[in-house]
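Supplementary Note 3. Input sequence used for the single-chain structure prediction.
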Amino acid sequence: MRIVIIGVSRVAEYLINYFEKSKHDIVVIDKDKKVIDYITDNYNVTGICGSGASREVLQQAGVDCSNYVISLTPIDEVNLLASSMSKNMGAKFVISILEREELINDREYIKNKFGIDYVIVPNHIISQKIASQIFYNVAKKVSFLFDNRLVLSELVVTKDSFFNMKKLKDIKPMLDVNFLIIGVIRNDKLIVPEGDFMLNAGDYIGILTTNDLMVSLFEKLELFHNPIKSLFIIGGGLLGEEILRQINDKKIKITMIDRDFERCDYLLNSYKGINVICADSTDVDVYEKLDISNKSAFVCTTGNDETNLLSAIIAKSYDVAENISIVKTSSYEKILKKTMLCLTISTSAIISQKILEKIFSRKGDGSHYYAFANEMLKTFIFDVPSNFKFSGIPLKEQNIKKEIIIGAILRDDKVIIPNGNDVILSEDKVFVLSQMNESIYSIINIYR
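The predicted structure, written as discrete structure tokens, is reproduced below.
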């Protein structure tokens, strides 16, 4: 594939790193020569110094024969112009980031007017991530799959975790809950584990189960926290407001803290039932007057990493149930993760994963893509034909490819999380996960 990326950012660098591994033809456009020099020195890409809003520059980048043009500049108008010209010049699929509220509110019109195939709205993506995190506050990430019948949670195995130093085949009988560990990230590599695989502290694992069983599983693991009763949003900007919209109809008491008087006045008049405090979020005295308990969640969403970091430190001193901080600077992200001070949300990683999911899900082979930590997994849903030759044979007796995981079986509207003794029957629906390099076109392709 030929991919043109306009505007170098952390999102762009994440994408470049991924596409380079997949040996795609990558062209990068940026106005800053130092940035282009850095990218071309560190990655196998073609760099062009210039504006993405220039037709000449886009021609030089070869957008007319590109599979994807991804416009990621910090200026919405440049992204719109670059997207429109790229589409008119022949780009097959155009992706653009938009951040200004008045443009986002009219994005369907803008998509059609400017020929944009996929609009990325960072605040929407990040706020959904944070809202899920607050309600499932023991997981690093929670996603809903298989028509929302399944929950895929991502956890880190700690030294004191139930999972530490246990083999997979021994875990399920001890817990007596039906679930699957679908993947393990160890030393930045994805492993599809088998029964004899032993989990270690530091492993990043994906747990697949049904919606109703997840609560039971987390309770048995002593991971399920008490429901969040109060939420403190530090920063009343667009992201803070979007999180408020996501959660405002839930039975959670919400307090917003922002230092801008006009913004606080707007929030107070626009949203009923919330508490708005106009103050510096790094002022410790502000928190002394608040009702903060171990059933509280803190979300630090200001545009300043230092402010978020200090606010997270204050929240940590109150032993809150959930402490979440938006981080843009990689060095701060490493510090926060190392100290376990709070859960860091890397906006660039989440946005780039959304872009990757969108790109790879367009292959037309019935697959969708799921970003698991720093890797991508394919997901498939297959209808089992009436003449299925392995019908009724226990899964443990079948010669299924090593890279394939049968995540769930839908039978008579009942979801089964399968073990080795379960069987696939004709007329079932089967949810399958695989690594990126596997091409699967039917249920038969899962076998060696």
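The first strand starts at residue 2 and ends at 6. The domain at 230-351 is CATH 3.40.50.720 (Rossmann fold).
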